[in-house]
Amino acid sequence: DVKVTQSSRYLVKRTGEKVFLECVQDMDHENMFWYRQDPGLGLRLIYFSYDVKMKEKGDIPEGYSVSREKKERFSLILESASTNQTSMYLCASSTSGRRGEQFFGPGTRLTVL
Amino acid sequence: AQSVTQLGSHVSVSEGALVLLRCNYSSSVPPYLFWYVQYPNQGLQLLLKYTSAATLVKGINGFEAEFKKSETSFHLTKPSAHMSDAAEYFCAVRPLNAGGTSYGKLTFGQGTILTVHP
Lengths: 113, 118
Hints:
The complex is a heterodimer.
Chain A: E1 4-6, E2 10-13, E3 19-25, E4 31-38, E5 42-51, E6 54-57, E7 65-70, E8 73-78, E9 87-94, E10 103-104, E11 108-112
Parallel strand pairs in A: 2-11
Antiparallel strand pairs in A: 1-3, 3-8, 4-5, 4-9, 5-6, 7-8, 9-10, 9-11
Chain B: E1 3-7, E2 10-14, E3 19-26, E4 32-38, E5 44-50, E6 56-58, E7 64-68, E8 73-78, E9 87-94, E10 107-108, E11 112-117
Parallel strand pairs in B: 2-11
Antiparallel strand pairs in B: 1-3, 3-8, 4-5, 4-9, 6-7, 7-8, 9-10, 9-11
């Protein structure tokens, strides 16, 4: 079974803090993704990576950065957390094949006070 | 750009009744389509996917979906709802001719919360 794990299920941070969200997958997938999920808005893509050290902006990259130093690990960074970044963050991975689905981690619910 | 519309943010059914969750896509080329389910406080789990083979796709937990090109739809159904089906459901689309640049990206609908009453 593909397993995608996220470093924290719940996280509480203060405005202005630097926040790291970590994601690890164990199936040697090329692609990895970070989404945020908000009620009524579905999942919105923040950033994705198609290879080590390669990244591309998604639909809502402002206020976020990412790092992929190893194939299995994809980190989301909030350089200076703000209250409007309070959300559920979901990580996913997939193969490079066109038919492959994305596999999701359990999510991190981040609250910024 | 491809998009997905899920009609109805909330759907409520009685246990044993038919479940119908609607999804329409916009694309000039029939895409790959997916349905995911999210149980409370969990990540998303794949229910089923359409990848241009059979138009009627069967998934897990008794769900199925039919791809209708003429209606640009991919509605999710289950003949008899169970209490354990209560969750949020997401339809997603990936362009068919993604080539080398889409990297498996998906565009998700806004989600439909399914409530099942005893």
